[in-house]
Amino acid sequence: MIEFINVDKVYPNKVKALQNINLKIGKGEFVAVIGLSGAGKSTLIRCINRMHDISSGQLIVDGVDVKKLKGKEIRKFRRRIGMIFQSFNLVTRTTVIKNVLVSFVPQLSFVRKITGLFAKEQKIKALTALDQVGILDKAYVRVDQLSGGQQQRVALARTLAQNPDILLADEPIASLDPVTSKQVMEDFKRINREMNISVIMNIHHVEVALEYADRIIGVREGQVVYDGKSADVTDDV
Ligand code: ADP
Ligand code: ADP
């Protein structure tokens, strides 16, 4: 459960990116945040895992008062929340499996870090995550030999390997062609349904948002201007 209570976000340059946001997002929801460029979508999403600090108000994520987290607690908290970016953020010159295993690095002992060895259990988790997104056969292929859609699936697998409760996605299909976008959205939908992971996605393709998300949150100039079921949205949005 994610709850925004009177949340404001003002950047150091005085831009008011979020103004008085009040929202409740329940476990297992698939939410698309839509709006024009500069509306505040990305800021809204990035406050949830504390990539950005809120300026005032309260943000509660799974019972945690996000603003109050300090140091080590922030890292621990972030591990429960997956984050997917438009640009995939992968190490392209190495294999798929190594990219997924990176998600375990903070948990590894110093010796393992320097020798590059991973626990068997972690390897199994990584391979399972690759299977969940349908690219197990690419485990030992270099990332730069994969298509954009396959790369986004590697990013998804890396996130799933951490067993997140929440999956945040900042424009995950913005750099993909329409066919690949559809496949990646199907993956998100399946993960949401089968693993009961909440998905909160920032997306500017309204028609894609309507097709896959259950709930649409419309943002304009830092404020929520629409919040409803995607099934209730008509053509005049
Ligand atoms: P969207 O994701 O809808 O395009 P953003 O959340 O990225 O919108 O941006 C909302 C507003 O905040 C914009 O005016 C943007 O220029 C500004 N902004 C975003 N990030 C920063 C930042 N790190 N520092 C200052 N201003 C920012
Ligand atoms: P994205 O769509 O991935 O958020 P942007 O191009 O909007 O990419 O922003 C890239 C980076 O620049 C982000 O870290 C964002 O917070 C920051 N940023 C965006 N707008 C501003 C701004 N007006 N001033 C300073 N930083 C900004």
UniProtKB/TrEMBL annotation:
Keywords: ATP-binding, Cell membrane, Membrane, Nucleotide-binding, Phosphonate transport, Translocase, Transport. Residues 2-237 form the ABC transporter domain. GO terms for molecular function: ABC-type phosphonate transporter activity; ATP binding; ATP hydrolysis activity. Signal peptide: none annotated. The keyword ATP-binding applies. InterPro entries: AAA+_ATPase, ABC_transporter-like_ATP-bd, ABC_transporter-like_CS, ABC_transpr_PhnC, MetN_ABC_transporter-like, P-loop_NTPase. One of its GO terms (cellular component) is membrane. SUPFAM superfamilies: P-loop containing nucleoside triphosphate hydrolases. NCBIfam families: ABC_phnC. This is Phosphonate ABC transporter ATP-binding protein. It comes from Gracilibacillus oryzae. The gene is phnC.
